[in-house]
């Protein structure tokens, strides 16, 4: 119906891998129905998008634009992240579920009929939530509350709204969660900080249900995430991994992360590598930690034990950039870019007044140097080692200001005078400090082909053989190949 109202003539269909077998049949039915019901009788071009096995929860706007689509139809479970360019129609699909089996599992977990429980479900089981809650109320449970799907990844409950009641974050902590179907790990971590306990109903088959209480295990996962934050706090070079090109505000989020990392005195590099794996990221040996810019589901790398460097979410990155005194992890946790906080800019003072009062660029650099000198030493809280390179860009400011002071106060040096590199000074490219170039200069043992020309003596060019394989000729002499 939405396709008819929109009057689109170019439609892209996106299926997860396990539903691709149904894609031709769905496209055939849509093509026939749309052509028959279209008012202008215009032919409708339907395209099936492929290669969406990675981040299938997001709409592949790039592939849809390659097909010149006017609208995308997304099938299956989704993160419901807002798109940046194309309108999207979501088809959640529905799986079968035995409601009586759900009631039996619920009774095993909650024997008290007055228990405060919020009932949620995966999007593919969302249509069963309201009937299950009605069945619970008929069975005497007075504290069960239903939820419905909504497009709000930054809500208290991501993409869900509580039906019939207005509960804030503090009131929600008095409730337990009963979730139908296994949620992704990012959602599990987010929900663990919002409810008093978690009760997950796994569904191997519609009538064969198993229930689990992962509250303790999830608390352990959160502690592990906090350990990664501590390891990233001592990193001097941070890589920003672009994990999506479809979420509406991914570009402003990248700029915001760059600004926050730069303000902390660290260096950032933005990298797009497609599907993430340990081998790809291990090629960037200069990077000491990664932050993923993606939706709230794909922003968390679940199986990250084999990654050489820590990979965190933007929310965790903000915590890592805090000062030690301010670094307090509350009860909340977020997996995507939906909770990046924009810092308020202070009003700029008049440039002439700054110059008169001595608060110009030189004074600002001097203040930053004094502040850096007075800061206490930084240690890796996991290993106890002293970290001297956690803020390399502040070292660059210090060395630049020192060299500027020498130029202004000292006598002019001739071009032939040798100048030694100051301790802690890093390499620069076109006058801009670059920790990556410093790593290439000082730590990389192999820097590519053609970099050893100054280590081996060159040889004279000699005349080689010519002719065919049956008989080669060297110079003026004929020689047969033996």
Description:
With 482 residues, the protein is of the alpha/beta class. The protein is globular and about 105 Å long. It contains 15 helices and 21 strands. The strands form six sheets. The protein has a six-stranded mixed beta sheet with strand order 7-6-5-8-9-10. 31% of the residues lie in helices and 18% in strands. The chain has helices at 2-6, 23-37, 61-66, 99-109, 129-138, 169-172, 185-192, 215-233, 250-263, 278-282, 314-320, 351-356, 361-374, 392-409, 435-442; strands spanning 10-14, 45-49, 71-75, 88-91, 117-121, 144-149, 160-162, 176-180, 197-202, 210-212, 237-242, 267-271, 289-293, 311-312, 378-379, 386-387, 428-429, 432-433, 465-468, 471-474, 477-480. The termini are far apart. It folds into four domains: 9-91, Diphthamide synthesis DPH1/DPH2 domain 1 (Rossmann fold, 3-Layer(aba) Sandwich); 99-213, Diphthamide synthesis DPH1/DPH2 domain 2 (Rossmann fold), CATH 3.40.50; 221-320, Diphthamide synthesis DPH1/DPH2 domain 3 (Rossmann fold, 3-Layer(aba) Sandwich); 358-408 and 426-442, no CATH class. Keywords: Cytoplasm, Iron, Iron-sulfur, Metal-binding. One of its GO terms (cellular component) is 2-(3-amino-3-carboxypropyl)histidine synthase complex. GO terms for molecular function: 2-(3-amino-3-carboxypropyl)histidine synthase activity; 4 iron, 4 sulfur cluster binding; metal ion binding. InterPro entries: DHP2 (IPR010014), DPH1/DPH2 (IPR016435), DPH1/DPH2_1 (IPR042263), DPH1/DPH2_3 (IPR042265). Residues 473-482 have a biased composition (Basic and acidic residues).
